[in-house]
């Protein structure tokens, strides 16, 4: 057996050593991740610990970089849609929409109204599924083992519904440039209508059993306070910004699709802490149900894909455009620059999780290790989306 | 032929019985916990191996025994392997003074409570050794938490036990049980409800069970002090945790719930039933609540449990003295 005289073999890589240069005397440098139960994938956070207190934290990214933006340069627009379902497995349809929307904007393609409503319904269902995933995983982070099973039970119903029109359960590539791939079947609409009252009846149970639990409240109240100024500085969007009282929702701020016709509220919270973000997400699930309900009523008959919709070999005309949608984690943006060639010249994807994560270093300073986990979870990070 | 004294023979038989039953209890408890957890979470739990999956823990245990014993580089080999053994061995001793039935006690000592409390304190040492010797930062953090927690929760535990001893006038578990009667209103829990509550909360903290499972909080510290243990090294920690649960529940039964007393059924059956009920309570708590934070854990202890336990003890002492005069 090899014997080591010192701990040289534990000195760490470039990031750790660079981070350790400015570490305080006697402080512990700890790598949370890339393999760690609470980082939901392969996020790595280098932290400097004084006892259990975090003096400094630095997220290290790139362990799940899959070159999606580069792939966009070597594929036609239609071929790139399946990539979008794989950027964020939590809210795949939001990403579908962002890219498809940008391509339609540049191409000047109208979308049939029924397709717009179908997009709204499926996107909101996907948002609920994403929030449920977050809810279960967050409570798992906080040491409650059981809620995730209930969350997945509900989420399963949504996945079953979405499986019908989209043909997949997680990494959807359902939207097309000029509409959606398939109409919602009568059976699918019936199942959505059955799901809405059922899920509404579940939410009070979650509130009674989990949200009002004293241990949970002690764990997330006044933890990870993010000031509005910090949110703005780092470009945080979605429930993270709304949990700090910033009433910014792309569905209202930069209206797209048929959202202006729908009546729904933007839940915000002035608590600014993890509890605020928790409350916002729980309220958003209810609002999504409201949106789906209205959209189902208002949905007209008709085509779901525009006549003469672009073929897979369709070349995006010369021009550029930016399209943003409200994802489950915040503002999802796709910026498309086309020179009229076979492939899109450049596609830039704005991932909300990237901005939301970047404020972690500042917010986690001076907190306890357990709180850092609570803060990290409350940001609702999906690592594949951050690394892209 | 009379070379072996009767007491020694008694202890020897008791040890063999305990060693056999600890393994069995471990297997049964793992199955019960997984089954209960499964039903709480709306899933069936283990069901493939044996009737209702009852043989699953046995298969898991065999798998653990068969696994390679792995030690990280830079770990202290002696301390690293001493820790799980040290976690498990005192547990065997803890079972000896437990009065399962009238006269059914492996080691009849007049300081049974003290013996149990003293040897259960050794568990801290194994946690510290495991965390320190494995040369792992998570392990070290877990060990630091474990020591602070165990030291903190031992005090209210001790004080709540003392209150009962005051009433019973003895530190012998069998004597304490004899002082109680058949029916629930004859049990010590009626005179010492606060002590019982403090005892149960402290016992959760003492056995590192959720919501106080901070030394091994897996979402923060991966697996805490036993991060680096595999195979039977981990298996022994696991077994010790369940055996410790049985011990604290047995002590609670003897001190507060009338021990072997109960109508109709024979004594040992009642004892096992009461212990099982308490164990189920601990399992239910684990699968229901989130984990508390470390500083909150200590606040609960130092600011609530300890003052309450002291007040309870003083009050008990006052009334015991009053009863003597009366």
Task: Describe the protein.
The complex is a heterodimer of chains A (388) and B (326). The mean pLDDT of chain A is 86. By secondary structure, chain A is mainly alpha-helical. Chain A has 16 helices and eight strands. Chain A has a single domain (68-355), classed as Cytochrome-c3 Hydrogenase, chain B (Orthogonal Bundle). By secondary structure, chain B is an all-alpha fold. Chain B has one domain (74-325). Helix content of chain B is 69%, strand content 0%. The mean pLDDT of chain B is 83. Chain A binds chain B through residues 2, 4, 7, 9-10, 28, 30, 36-38, 49, 51-52, 139-146, 149-150, 153, 213, 215-216, 218-219, 368-371, 373, and chain B through 37, 40-43, 73-74, 135, 137-138, 140-141, 144-145, 210-211, 213, 217-222, 286-296.
Largest beta sheet of chain B, briefly? none
Beta percentage of chain A is 5-15%
Q: Name the assembly state.
A: heterodimer
Number of domains of chain A: 1
Question: Helix count of chain B, per DSSP?
Answer: 13
Q: In a few lines, what is going on in this structure?
A:
The complex is a heterodimer of chains A (388) and B (326). Chain A has 388 residues and is mainly α.
Provide keyphrases for this structure.
heterodimer; A: 388 residues; mainly alpha; Cytochrome-c3 Hydrogenase, chain B; three-stranded antiparallel β-sheet; 8 strands; B: 326 residues; 13 helices; globular
Question: Topology, pairings included?
Answer:
The complex is a heterodimer of chains A (388) and B (326).
Chain A: H1 14-21, E1 28-32, E2 44-50, E3 53-60, H2 68-73, H3 77-87, H4 92-107, H5 113-141, H6 147-166, E4 175-176, E5 179-180, H7 186-211, H8 214-220, H9 228-234, H10 238-242, H11 250-253, H12 274-298, E6 319-326, E7 331-338, E8 346-350, H13 352-358, H14 360-363, H15 369-378, H16 383-387
Helix pairs in contact in A: 3-4, 4-5, 5-6, 5-12, 5-15, 6-7, 7-12
Chain B: H1 6-40, H2 56-66, H3 77-95, H4 112-120, H5 122-133, H6 137-168, H7 173-178, H8 188-191, H9 193-206, H10 218-221, H11 231-256, H12 267-286, H13 294-325
Helix pairs in contact in B: 1-2, 1-11, 2-11, 3-4, 3-5, 3-11, 5-6, 6-9, 6-13, 9-11, 9-13, 11-12
């Amino acid at each position: 057996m090899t014997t080591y005289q010192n701990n040289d073999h534990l000195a760490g890589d470039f990031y750790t050593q660079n981070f350790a240069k400015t570490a305080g005397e006697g402080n512990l440098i700890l790598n949370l991740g890339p393999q760690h139960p609470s980082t939901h994938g392969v996020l790595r956070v280098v932290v400097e610990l004084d006892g259990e207190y975090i003096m400094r934290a630095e997220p290290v990214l790139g362990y799940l970089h899959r070159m999606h933006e580069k792939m966009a340069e070597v594929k036609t627009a239609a071929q790139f849609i399946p990539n979008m379902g794989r950027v964020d497995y939590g809210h795949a349809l939001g990403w579908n929409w962002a890219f498809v929307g940008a391509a339609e904007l540049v191409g000047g393609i109208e979308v049939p109204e029924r397709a717009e409503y179908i997009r709204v319904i499926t996107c909101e269902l996907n948002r609920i599924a994403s929030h449920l995933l977050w809810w279960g995983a967050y409570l798992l982070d906080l040491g409650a083992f059981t809620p995730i099973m209930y969350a997945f039970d509900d989420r399963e119903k949504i996945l079953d519904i979405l499986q019908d029109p989209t043909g997949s359960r997680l990494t959807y590539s359902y939207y097309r440039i000029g509409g959606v791939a398939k109409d919602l079947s009568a059976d699918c609409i019936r199942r959505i209508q059955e799901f809405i009252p059922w899920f509404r009846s579940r939410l009070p149970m979650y509130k009674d059993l989990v949200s009002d639990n004293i241990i949970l409240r002690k764990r997330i109240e006044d933890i990870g306070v993010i000031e509005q100024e910090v949110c703005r500085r780092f470009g945080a969007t979605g429930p993270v910004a709304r949990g700090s009282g910033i009433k910014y929702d792309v569905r209202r701020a930069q209206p797209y699709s048929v959202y202006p016709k729908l009546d729904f509220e933007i839940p915000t919270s002035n608590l600014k802490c993890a509890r605020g973000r928790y409350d916002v997400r729980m309220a958003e699930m209810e609002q999504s149900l409201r949106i789906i309900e209205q959209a189902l009523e208002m949905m007209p008959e008709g085509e779901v894909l525009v006549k003469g919709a672009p073929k897979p070999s369709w070349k995006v005309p010369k021009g550029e455009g930016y399209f943003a949608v409200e994802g489950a984690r915040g503002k999802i943006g796709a910026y498309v620059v086309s020179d009229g060639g076979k492939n899109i010249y450049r596609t830039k994807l704005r991932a909300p999780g990237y901005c939301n994560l970047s404020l972690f270093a500042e917010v986690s300073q001076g907190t306890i290790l357990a709180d850092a986990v609570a803060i990290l979870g409350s940001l609702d990070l999906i690592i594949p989306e951050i690394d892209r | 032929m009379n070379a072996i004294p009767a007491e020694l023979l008694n202890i020897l038989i008791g040890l063999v019985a305990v060693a056999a039953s600890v393994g069995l209890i471990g297997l049964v408890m793992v199955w019960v916990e997984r089954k209960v957890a499964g039903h709480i979470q709306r899933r069936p739990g283990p069901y493939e191996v044996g009737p209702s999956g009852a043989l699953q823990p046995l298969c898991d245990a065999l798998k653990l025994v068969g696994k390679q014993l792995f030690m990280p580089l830079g770990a202290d080999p002696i301390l690293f392997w001493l820790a799980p053994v040290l976690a498990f061995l005192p547990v065997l001793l803890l079972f000896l003074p437990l009065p399962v039935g009238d006269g059914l006690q492996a080691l009849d000592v007049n300081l049974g409570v003290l013996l149990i409390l003293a040897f259960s304190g050794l568990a801290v040492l194994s946690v510290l050794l495991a965390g320190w010797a494995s040369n792992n930062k998570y392990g070290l953090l877990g060990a630091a938490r474990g020591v602070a927690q165990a030291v903190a929760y031992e005090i209210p535990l001790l004080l709540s036990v003392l209150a009962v001893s005051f009433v019973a006038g003895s530190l012998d578990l069998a004597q304490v049980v004899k002082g109680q009667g058949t029916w629930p209103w004859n049990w010590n829990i009626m005179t010492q409800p606060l002590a019982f509550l403090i005892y149960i909360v402290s016992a959760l903290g003492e056995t590192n069970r959720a919501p106080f499972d901070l030394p091994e909080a897996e979402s923060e510290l991966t697996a805490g002090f036993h991060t680096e243990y595999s195979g039977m090294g981990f298996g022994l920690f696991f077994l010790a945790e369940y055996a410790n649960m049985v011990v604290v529940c047995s002590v609670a039964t003897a001190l507060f719930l009338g021990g072997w007393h109960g109508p109709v059924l024979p004594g040992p059956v009642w004892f096992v039933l009461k212990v099982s009920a308490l164990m189920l309570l601990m399992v239910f708590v684990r699968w229901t609540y989130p984990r508390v934070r470390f500083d909150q854990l200590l606040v609960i202890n130092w600011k609530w449990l300890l003052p309450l336990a002291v007040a309870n003890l003083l009050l008990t002492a006052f009334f015991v003295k009053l009863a003597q005069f009366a």
